[in-house]
Amino acid sequence: MTDQAVEGRRARLRRETLRDLHVAALDEIREHGAVDLSLRRVARRLGMSPAGLYRYVDSREDLLTRLIADAFHDLADHVFVSIGAADERHDLDVAPGRPPEIAGPERDVRDRLRAAALAYRDWAVDHPNEFGLLFGDPIPNYAAPPGGETVDAMARVGAGIGRPLIEAWEQGRLRVPAAWDDLVADPDLAARFGPMEHLDGRTLSPAFAAGLLVLWGRLHGQVVLEVFGHHRWLLPDGCEALYRAELATIDAELLTTPP
Prior knowledge:
Blueprint: H1 3-32, H2 39-46, H3 50-53, H4 60-82, H5 109-126, H6 128-135, H7 149-170, H8 178-183, H9 187-192, E1 198-199, E2 202-203, H10 206-227, H11 240-254
Antiparallel strand pairs: 1-2
Helix pairs in contact: 1-2, 4-5, 4-6, 4-7, 5-7, 5-10, 5-11, 10-11
């Protein structure tokens, strides 16, 4: 076997072990919660010694960072697939999952926004533990590295969800509410939205950048209520109808009909 073949085999085995490690760590979180994530128990699930696990992760915090980044990337990949941008997936070897519909660039922005938003909800409902890792209670004594891989991964989610709305804005089909302008009337508050003014390769107006955060809050809020079980007493079979009603409301409020 050539040296190149040996290196290729080692790389493949390492990738497989990292995938197994990812699955084992998520299983550990499902059973014990992120707060009690134990490297020793993860190693036991893998049939590996705790010392052997450190060949793949530097620490418990390093493992948490990887899990969070991977979950954000997986969520973003589902959203990108839903808007016909499968080639923008972070991990091209992973199956795209089950987007409720695919609305490519040739479709109207209404269809694209709905597809992206439904892909966001479906991923969350299908991956409640990963969603809880991203958006649940803070993990004591853990802080994601500032400006690190979790930040980049989360930005991809924003780019995927925001793309249809950015397209509507560029087409002159977005009604920008006065309240969005009011958000950035205060210079100090406007400066806080500065990092959002460059998203998905576009330069946005301060008001529109702030508005994207407002819209995400509306959609995300519905998903949080569903995934964390707050509506289960009333809607035990899921809250898709409520979510679609919110989408229809946003559509009617913000999007104009094409000429």
